[in-house]
Amino acid sequence: MGLLFSDLSDCYDIEEVKLGEGSFGQVWRAIDKRNSEIVAIKQLVKKRPDKRQPDYRYEVDIMQRVLHEHILKFIGMWEDATDIYLVLEYCDGGDFSHKLKFRPEQPMGPCEPVVAEWLFQVCSAIGALHAAFIVHRDVNPKNFMLSRGVLKLADFGIALLLPREDAMLFKRSGTPGFMAPEQCMLPEGEGYSRPVDMWAAGIVLHMMLHGGRNPCIENGKLDISRFERTVVKRLSVPKAWNAKTLHCTVEPPEVQIATSDGEVSARRRPRKNSWGTKTSQGASPEAQELLERLLTSGQRKRATAEEALKHPWLACRETVSPCGTESASFSGFDRQLSY
After folding, report:
1. Low-confidence spans in the chain with pLDDT less than 70
2. What does the alpha-carbon distance between residue 140 and residue 204 come to, in Å, rounded to a whole number?
3. Which residue among the candidates 32, 83, 138, 223 is catalytic per the annotation?
4. For residue 216, what pLDDT is reported?
5. Dihedral of the CA atoms 18, 20, 21, 24 (nearest 10)?
6. DSSP tag of 253
7. What's the whole-model pTM score?
8. Residues 6+ positions from 125 with CB-CB distance below 8 Å
9. What digits encode the pLDDT tens for the residues 283-301?
10. Is 138 a residue of the active site?
11. Which of 75, 95, 164, 243 could form a disulfide with 87 if both were Cys (CB 3.0 to 4.6 A apart)?
12. Residue 223's closest CA among 211, 213, 237, 210?
């Protein structure tokens, strides 16, 4: 970790290449003078007018607790009288949201083997955090960066370290459109915990399967009335808020099947399609089943990161050639430099 109040220029040559900008400050590209590696330097303004001073050291502490291939690597921190500088792993592919935008050649988004590989990386990052009792609380495509085709979860500004495994949180925080039912119900309800990240992963999966469409976003903006109409008002109906109701997906029709003892049971008619092939509803049965397990209103029934990673749809991803290629590919998506 960098030494506080030391001279950042002694170690890094900051280039005039801005990688990103927001209310927090700016992100610059820099060269490590010691090994010539490219890094990203996040410049954070200490005093912001009319805004509460965030505790950046807490964010740094969270990032240092988990070292994982799908979590953005923290390298060091410097500080002067006006700014704090976080040195982070450089990502050359921009944020993941750019890869989910509608494209004429792929109106329903990328093929499922590629989606499965992406979701595997998303759940791997979340699983690593949850194993350390950390809730990210802001899982969304813009907070995943691409580094040489690999997803990296970033932005731990509102992440929290749980004091114990069963601790519940009661502060409503996150990005609208990705917040779980238990967050939207606050101040009512029993609070929330790590499952909120898996709900957000389910929204990300829906976007990957449906050409970047977030079911709670209309024309690029959160439609509160639509959100309440399709989501919040259904909370009073048991088991009503899930992937089937929220996204109007259609299940295969039930058929009557006679068993050996003469009883008749209703079973779902299987769809005749190969693994990972999208149907008219926008997802294969395997993908839809996992989507439903992630987008279930009951947080205790929602699939955990560990359960999602073991789901057959993800377990089979390495045995299927995605999009006619031999390995998972991000082809067809332009690489846009962004932070």
Report:
1. 1-6, 23, 48-54, 101-109, 219-282, 318-339
2. 7
3. 138
4. 73
5. -120
6. P
7. 0.77
8. 68, 70, 71, 144, 151, 152, 153
9. 788 999 999 999 988 999 9
10. yes
11. 75
12. 213
